[in-house]
Design a protein that fits this description.
The structure is a single chain. With about 120 residues, this protein is mostly helical. It has a domain at about 5-20 and about 40-75. The chain is built from five helices and no strands. α1 (about 5-25) packs antiparallel against α3. The radius of gyration is 31 Å and the shape is elongated.
């Protein structure tokens, strides 16, 4: 299993967790935070602490996702390709012949005045 594949799996897992954490949140007091703070005096964490946890976990997972995406770019196996684009290769540009421009001495070519008259 290559390093890039490991990063890819981690990115998918973190993205899924981020989706779950975002879907659990509800800014109007519903969702998971309302079920923990249900109205009794004995609360499992309380509404404020649950909201803080969800908020911190959202930012942590989003930051982790961004870092994993950036670091996975380093792990991509590029092989021995070197320069991938011929447009960036200066040697390839100098060795390619220019296309021949056809020269015609034909007097039957249309002029702008001729096309305007039609």
């Amino acid at each position: 299993m290559s390093t890039f594949t490991i990063f890819l799996v981690l990115i998918v897992v973190v993205a899924f967790l981020l989706i779950v954490v975002i879907m659990v949140q509800n800014p109007k007091g519903g969702g998971l935070s309302s079920s923990f703070g249900g109205g009794g005096t004995q609360q499992l964490g309380g509404v404020k602490k649950t909201t803080d946890f969800l908020d911190k976990s959202t930012w942590t997972l989003a930051t982790l996702l961004l870092v994993l995406i950036l670091v996975s770019n380093i792990a991509i196996d590029r092989g021995n390709a070197g320069i991938e684009s011929k447009a960036l290769d200066t040697d390839a540009q100098s060795t390619q012949p220019l296309p021949a421009v056809p020269t015609t001495n034909d007097t039957t070519t249309a002029t702008p005045e001729d096309s305007a008259a039609e």
